[in-house]
Design a protein that fits this description.
Shape: globular
Protein name: AraC family transcriptional regulator
Largest sheet: 5 strands, mixed
CATH class of the largest domain: Mainly Beta
Structural class: alpha+beta
Organism: Lactobacillus delbrueckii
Number of strands: 11
CATH superfamily of the largest domain: Jelly Rolls
GO molecular function, one term: sequence-specific DNA binding
Pfam families: Cupin_2, HTH_18
Strand content: 15-25%
Keywords: DNA-binding, Transcription, Transcription regulation
Number of helices: 10
Distance between the termini: 18 Å
Order of helices and strands: EEEEEEEEEHEHHEHHHHHHH
Strand order of the largest sheet: 1-3-8-5-6
């Protein structure tokens, strides 16, 4: 099962997809999409989200973001229920209407609830959630856009690290490479073979991909394989040797070495410790 690309369908005449999931028992496989995602956990405790290889623990009231093209997955305790809402921004719209966003690197994790910016983001999300439940007339659409643009301006001023980009990244190339890796990470592809496949130098491909994923090609490929292995460890009874082969590692020992460097425990230890959090 390759890492999934999430096709994001915007709401009618709006530049984002909005979602609300109540009584939600998360078991989201590793996936990615091109747009920035903003999430708000309305209720629930110990909601685990793995973003670009890092595990984050969220509780009721937390707001966080997932940057463009970052691979991520969500899991929760199988005996608990969660209510989460959020939106995924149309990246083409954002870069056209807010060109400086091309230089953003989102920094929104466990933001303090004692700040005016947190209260404003929460208000924006809750208001949008109420408005999208209504028929989207012209007046409702403009009210939604007002809340949305407030969020964009706030994210820009409070929750981004500006990177100096002398030449904009080739987003189309990066997305194509990311999709290729997601679909072929279980095979014996390497950074060199990927560069050869796209008939581009590895140096150039590293530069283009790292502007989007914040990782060079080889490290990104390893991260994809490790996150896929993590998902299979929690969701199946497959042996470690089988998972290693399935995820593109040359042997179980190679998976164990890389997994331990990532999670500070072996795959078997990780499965024993955390499979209880994965909903069946």
């Amino acid at each position: 099962m390759p890492i999934a690309y999430e096709e994001v369908d915007n709401l009618v005449r709006l530049p984002f997809k909005f979602f609300k999931r109540s009584n939600y028992a998360p078991k989201a496989p590793t996936h990615w999409h091109t747009g920035i995602e903003i999430d708000y956990l309305v209720s629930g405790e110990d909601f685990k989200v793995v973003i670009a290889g890092q595990t984050h623990h969220y509780n009721s009231g937390d707001i966080w973001a997932i940057d463009r093209s970052q691979i991520h997955a969500a899991t929760g305790h199988k005996d608990r229920s969660y209510y989460v809402m959020g939106l995924i921004i149309d990246n083409n719209f954002l870069e056209k209407e807010y060109p400086s966003s091309k230089n953003w690197r989102i920094k929104m994790d466990h933001i303090s609830r004692d700040t005016a910016s947190y209260r404003q983001l929460r208000k924006n999300l809750i208001t949008i959630a109420k408005l999208v439940d209504q028929p989207i007339s012209d007046s409702i659409r403009f009210l939604i856009l007002s809340e949305f643009f407030q969020m964009i301006a706030l994210i820009d001023s409070e929750y981004t690290e500006k990177t100096a980009v002398t030449t904009p990244p080739n987003q189309s190339l990066a997305d194509t490479v990311i999709a290729y890796i997601a679909n072929n990470s279980s095979t014996n592809i390497t950074a060199q073979s990927i560069a050869e496949h796209f008939r581009i130098s590895q140096v150039t491909l590293n530069k283009e991909l790292s502007q989007v994923t914040k990782l060079p090609l080889g490290k990104y490929l390893k991260q994809v394989r490790l996150m896929h292995a993590r998902y299979l460890l929690l969701s199946t009874n497959y042996s470690v040797a089988y998972i290693a082969n399935y995820c593109g590692f040359s042997s179980a020992k190679v998976l164990e070495r890389n997994f331990k460097a990532w999670k500070k425990m072996t795959p078997s230890q990780y499965r024993k410790a955390f499979s209880k959090y994965f909903n069946e």
